[in-house]
Amino acid sequence: MIILQRTEDMTQWSREQRARGKRIGFVPTMGFLHPGHLSLVEFAKIQGRCSQTVMSIFVNPTQFGPNEDFEKYPRDFERDRKLAEQAGIDALFYPAADDMYEKFARTFVEVEGMGKVMCGVTRPTHFRGVTTVVNKLLNIVEPHVAVFGQKDAQQFLIIKRMVQDLFMPVEVLMAPIVRENDGLAMSSRNVYLNPNERKDAVCLSQALNIAQAMIAHGETHSTRLTDAMRMHIEKHASARIDYIAIVDTENLLPILQIQKSSLIALAVYIGKTRLIDNIIIS
Known about the structure:
Blueprint lengths: L1 E3 L2 H13 L4 E6 L5 H12 L5 E6 L19 H10 L4 E3 L3 H4 L18 H4 L3 H16 L3 E5 L3 H13 L5 E5 L19 H6 L2 H14 L5 H12 L5 E10 L13 E9 L2 E9 L1
Helix pairs in contact: 6-7, 9-10
């Protein structure tokens, strides 16, 4: 595995691989890797049919709000390097913030509307930061395929729209959520939870399971589904709901009835830690 820090070195490596006829898969991360991240690598190799895989590790400052956890976001590059190598990554891109955001940079990329709902209500600048950095990374890495996790379903759908709208020559794929044995979606932020909070955190996936079971028995009304989910989550002492949303996967607009392709997503504070989870009904 080669480690590349300069943007021009990353681009040169990718172009050399393309010239050799290699198909490049790309997994962008903010590091502090867990099995969920590593599953994206396998997904790129198998589902994306990629012969070369690139992973980026970059804690992107522009997607954090002023009172969020940018400074304390967990970082451990040496641990991440070993895990990436074990996962079969061919090139690890580890840029500095000054290289990704030059001193006089003034350009941002924003997908109108889709970044202002759900997570965007309480994090109004978050998705502008996400789409800007992903745009930069795709331009630098020049992959054939980029893989994102379903856990960040809103992020994936926004990036998919950006790629389509800007005619970017990359295929974006969504890999399924990887969960702990008790159902909690894997996240780098899970390390913030104390033992009691960790027990309460499973209420997110349990609430989604309740909704899925109701749908299987014929319930399609969004309000009745969200009421049942809310009732379950509120039984847990450390839980505070940010939102529960049932939306169309095409535009993230709320829907009254479950339809052909619907996203059920929620964000819940467990203590001071904000966790997200979702299911897609098709």
